[in-house]
Amino acid sequence: MKTVIEKVIEDQKICNQDKIDTAGKIIQEGGLVAFPTETVYGLGADALNPKASRKIYEAKGRPSDNPLIIHIADMKALDKIAVHISEKAVKLAEHFWPGPLTMIFEKSEAVPLETTGGLQTVAVRMPSHPAALALIQAAGGYIAAPSANTSGRPSPTLAEHVAEDMDGRIPMILDGGAVGIGIESTIVDFSEETPMILRPGYITPEMIEKIIGQIKIDPGIIKENCGIHPKAPGMKYRHYAPRAELVLVSGAQEKVKQKINDLAREAELSGKTAGVIGTDESCRYYRCGIVKSIGTRNDEDTIARNLYGILREFDQQNVDIIYSESFETSGIGQAIMNRLLKAAGQKMIEV
Ligand code: AMP
Ligand code: MG
Fold it and tell me: What domain count does the chain have?
């Protein structure tokens, strides 16, 4: 299959509605289209068509028990796919939709089990990206879309990343340039009594608690490998990972830099190509390996935005081992560390 890449955004506005309409038609006919959202690029199919959803699993090599998020473009669309929508959920939707928040509800009859990985619940998000909203409308209102990477690899934050993984597997990629946020949405489960965060993201627990009061955080994601299974099936897999081994180093800044310098030197002496992930503030202290800045500690949004791209860059440079600083901060730092630890298979050295 030939994959075409169509530019649809210029100056943050839609510049090519025709191509979005063509993409919508592909989805309505049961095909797949990759498209930009504000979090990461998604791989979309008609969420209400079981055969179309199945194609997503095939193209990504995604385990069939890992459910998809349904993307909608307006609040009215929610009633058809979800039942028992609580007042708290409506409040969160009012505050954070369109935006990087996914909510889980009991599913309606309209949603096929192929889309929900066999679960009786459904994950729903209304993205804010103009191309995503326009595509959802052109496709009939319901797009199931996980991140548009091969399962396990870092999520795509550029159309070029999607092409690396999906070229020849899907007919069309809509190119909206670099995404704004760079890590996946926060997932909040409303299918049980007390709402619970199943995946940390740009919208933090503090931001949610301000609107609806106390929420729980899935114990399975706070400390991995503790024997508690995370409730979001996708959170149990190694994920977001570069081909190279990734090791995080955490502790006081000075000690971390020293340790990474030592580790990168040792790796190079043993004949390996080492990569180092530092920040704008720390990069000049590193002496060995291919050194890259992931962003600035003064603005953690930059770190989220560059995270997956930097892992893919190291892959292209055939690095064998990557050492990264840690970012144990509140706010979006929780989501950044969650993704980095997963990408590292939980390997972290404390100094
Ligand atoms: P992705 O779109 O690639 O970010 O993956 C979607 C994430 O949402 C995965 O971690 C899924 O396990 C999770 N998810 C989707 N639907 C549900 C659901 N009904 N219950 C729990 N987790 C879900
Ligand atoms: Mg994903």
Answer: 2
Which CATH number does the domain housing residue 318 bear? 3.40.50.11030
215 and 254, same domain (yes or no): no
Of 222, 236, 223, 247, give the one whose Cα is nearest residue 311.
247
Mean pLDDT, the chain, rounded, equals 95
Domain range holding 119? 4-221
H or E segment and range at residue 104: strand 101-107
Q: How far is the CA of 276 from the centre of ligand 1 (A)?
A: 31
Q: Measured in angstroms, how far is the CA atom of residue 211 from the centroid of ligand 2?
A: 27
Q: Which atom of ligand 1 is nearest to 123's Cα?
A: 16
**Residue of minimum CA distance from atom 23 in ligand 1:** 232
**How far, in Å, is the centroid of ligand 2 from the Cα of 155?**
6
pLDDT in tens, 198-238: 999 999 999 999 999 999 999 888 766 667 788 888 887 77
Closest of 324, 328, 323 to residue 300, by C-alpha: 328
CB distance 39 to ligand 1 below 6 Å: no
Instruction: Give residue 9's identity as a one-letter amino acid code.
Output: I
Of 56, 104, 115, the residue with max ligand 1 atoms within 8 A of its CB, to mutate for a pocket test, comes to 104
CA–CA separation, 187 vs 69, rounded Å?
10
Instruction: Classify residue 235: in a domain, yes or no.
Output: no
Query: Is 187 close to ligand 1, i.e. is its CB under 6 Å away?
Result: yes
